[in-house]
Amino acid sequence: MNYAFVVVASIHSPAGQCDGSERSQIQLLWPKMASCGRVQVFLLLMSLCLLSVHSLKALPGFGNAHPQAVAVQQQLRAAVPNPAAASSGSQSRRSTGWKLAEEQACRDDVTRLCPKHTWTNNLSVLECLQDRKEETEFAVDCNHLLWNYKLNLTTDPKFESVALEVCTSTMLELKECADEERGKGYLMSCLVDHRGNVTERQCQQYITKMTSIIFSDYRLICGFMDKCREDINTLQCGSITIGEKDLHSQGEVIACLETALVREAEQQEHTHPIKSDCKKAIMRVAELSADDFHLDRYLYFSCRDDRERFCENTQVGEGRVYKCLFNHKFEEGMSEKCRNALTTRQKLIAQDYKVSYSLAKACKADLRKYRCNPDSSMPRAREARLSYLLLCLESAVHRGRMVTGDCQGEMLDYRRMLMEDFSLSPEIVLHCRGEIEAHCSGLHRKGRTLHCLMRVARGDKGAVDNLCQTALQTLIQSADPGADYRIDRALNEACESVIQTACKHIRSGDPMILSCLMEHLYTEKMVQDCEHRLLELQYFISRDWKLDPILYHKCQNDASRLCYTPGWNESSELMPPGAVFSCLYRHAYRTEEQGRRLTRDCKVEVQRILHQRALDVKLDPELQKRCMIDLGKWCSDKTDSGQELECLQDHLDDLVSNCREIVGNLTELESEDIQIEALLIRACEPVIQNHCRDVADNQIDTGNLLECLVQNKHQREMNEKCAVGVTHFQLIQMKDFRFSYKFKMACKEDVLKLCPNIKKKADVVICLSTTVRNDTLQDVKDQRVSLKCRKQLRVEELEMIIECLKENKKVLSQTCHQKIFKLQETEMMDPELDYQLMRVCKQMIKRFCTESDTKSVLQCLKQNKNSELMDPKCKQMITKRQITQNTDYRLNPVLRKACKADIPKFCQSILNKASDAHELEGQVISCLKLKYADQRLSSDCEDQIRVILQESALDYRLDPQLQAHCNNEITRLCAEEATAQEQTGQVEECLKNNLLKIRKEECKTEVLNMLKESKADIFVDPVLHTACALDLKHHCAAITPGRGRRALQDKQVRLQPDCNRRLQDRIDMWSYAAKVAPAEGFSDLALQVMTSPSKTYILLMITLSVSILFLVGLLCGRITKHVTRELKNSPPPPFIPPPSLPSWNLIDPGGANYLFPS
């Protein structure tokens, strides 16, 4: 389509001095303009835009010009019509030297608005008046004068003859222009249309000057009115009649049509569909104004102040001012009107890349080279889209083809532009409108809205429509931020500090920056804002393997060979998101025998991606898609890093089949290469460095690193996080034999052949072990289980063997017993090391002990053991561990800590006999039980012993002394109670009731001790406590443990019949126990008195006896005193010396002599 530019000339007569003839001649000009039938009303806003004076200095009539420019200037001046030619012949005027500035209609306006040095040049005056500020008014007559002056310039054959002279060579090359009809503006339209192919300097200068004139008013573009008249009237974008609007301010009309075109592309409400021919005309106008922002009149006037503020030193031409303004679009100082005008132009560029002069020019050769040019077989809406251009050129870059630096620079700018402003993508505006209004309103600037939408798509804020998801994925592919993180401004700003510290060794803009950031995810160096932006972007990159440029570069040949992938910029509905990468990692771990393996470089990249995806389950699109329901059902509360995958693995048996399959495959992969678990490897770094460095450095893992970590779980370098992670893998390995890599590789064929329907590892081991045993016993020559499997089977049987040894440690040798005891002691200190307990009670731990410390798990399970929700298997395992703990206080770390001072104080004699090789068989705990009955323990120790007494009162197996001494009596007297499925104190009650029938003195002593303990505290007597529970609640709520029975024995308390009967039975038993087991010392005697039912009577009698003794003593004392006094008062008897009185003389140091009788 050619556009004839009807460039306006001038009227000679000044305003106010025209006679009727002159006025009639002015009116004759209108048919000329109308005769250009293609004068579309659409060059709208081009009305006020000439090149600035600075840009036109080298053009005709502007200062010291280039010699060639001077020649053009002279020819232009010669071609300018004499004003007399446009006016009446009776009005004689000079044929040369006519000046616009001298015309009365414009003299005042020129003097007021234009610098004096421009007055002598008509074109300078024209530019000055056109580029005035919008709020500046000037005379209507001057407007008409300028308009007619430009019209005559365009349509006058003499003016077109200048074009033929300065564009001689060009006219020979552009035959379609040479054939245009003269005098209607068609020639200039053709030249401007093909100016990209013009090489003559003089011709380029001439066309540039004329283009600036043509673009001043939409009515001067021939054919534009015919194509857009209906749309302009329907949309009320402007007026086509003279006087309704300022004739040189039609830029708003073009802006109105451009806005309508954008609204239609975004399918906004109440939009009017613009005719196809008008759309092409609008886009053509935008293309022609691409190099100089002056030519986009609406944008020029909207951004005039912003240009001075942000781009003052930016030279006009080649779209440089546009790019400068685009880069400052979201600055705080940018006016809203300019920002909106820039956004509209960017949206036009998104629809037609040619609207960007710099992009079209820089990439012209590359577009032709890689066949990205418009294809005649494709609709224009497809061929000219910016996204299509970017995808086509990015495909060439990703394939390793050479794209010029200038073109790549332009691509980078426009990719950044797409990431900064979501509204430039009409698909996102159309399909994500609901999500933006609901979650992301008010976040328009600097890519924040786009990242908000990406976060919604991740599921962090809600659900997202499939069309919106597709639009986001398409935009990410077009912008390709994976190739250069700087394209994503939101990410770049959020992660700047992390990049400067953690990734400073990597060149800025390198694709490895994103990989580096992922490696530091959830570390101390990562900041929260960067973490969010990074995961939002990686969510989309992970869904298209091509968006990771390093992976694509290293694996494109493998993907083509093994996965039959389409080209980079192509898509296939048969290849869903994530399918290519799934194919790659399936081939990454194949053995040489299996064939079709990845190349080494590709495998390294696949492992890198797997390490990153293990950090967040949402980075694995296939896993998230298949497991969406299970994640919500089982793992809704698992929000920390890595927890979702662990949760799915824990619930593997409960998952739906599709989810179970992919979780199983991923777990199987992790069993071979545990380094995929980046968080675990990070937590276990100290252990790896000190004990597993050799296996960690191996290129091929094959499960060795995990095995090393398991073997070193007891090392001092093992921290809590690492221990938890390793234990987790040990537990999930039992769910499926495939999760133990070495076992799987050694026994896979044997399992399929001999145990085809079994998956659980424990069951598989039993199945294979049974087969090996039967073949061995039957002397089968060829064992059905292969040799390599039998070797691995011995390793897997070790865990079962250790559990067996624990249960039968009494019959072990001293050395073995000592090893098992030390192992149990370590496991009791840290229950997470107790593999069997953690495996059997995993669900109960999650139910009851989520808030408990890892070292207090067993204590928590013991407290909830009798809950109705407790799993029977777990309860049985807890009972086993309690039995183990009660055999030796050293196996009960809580008791050991609480009774640290009491044990050596009361039980030192037992400690003196202790041995590391043997348990104390509950002797220390029995000692503490007796002191508990005497109420002599510290409060902390008393609390722990009370718990042990309560538990052992319900299950006799928890009292090792009772079980050891009464085993035969239990079998003889209480066999039925001992075989009960659940122990609730039946055996203890049976022994108490049959106390008189017990033959073994040691057993009788233990039963008496039980009675003594229950006498001290009713809470350790389950039968009496159950019978009197209601009375205890009513009468003893405020009484501390150990005093409950005394309150019940109060004669004033009325008890329930069952409680009264049970209490009387207990009193009778205690009385009998006191007779059978008299006090062994004063303390026992005092305790018996204080706990006796007749305590008051006994204390009264003791008090009475003491009182009587006191009175008797007092009486005797007075009598003695009276006798003594009488003896003193009586005269002494005569002295009669004895017959022979021995004597000796003692001399004291002072020389005194004393005589003492012998």
Task: Give a quick precis of the structure.
This protein has 1158 residues and is an all-alpha fold. It has 66 helices and 2 strands. The longest helix has 35 residues, at 1095-1129.
Tell me what the structure shows.
Pfam families: Cys_rich_FGFR. By secondary structure, this protein is mainly α. Among the domains are: 106-398, no CATH class; 544-617, no CATH class; 623-669, no CATH class; 888-936, no CATH class; 937-1076, no CATH class. It has a two-stranded antiparallel ribbon with strand order 1-2. Strand 1 and strand 2 form a beta hairpin. Helix 2 (67-79) crosses helix 10 (201-214), helix 22 packs antiparallel against helix 26 (466-479) and helix 44 (761-777) packs across helix 45 (787-807). 44% of the residues are buried. Mean pLDDT is 76; it is low at 1-73, 75-96, 215-220, 239-249, 375-383 and 1141-1158.
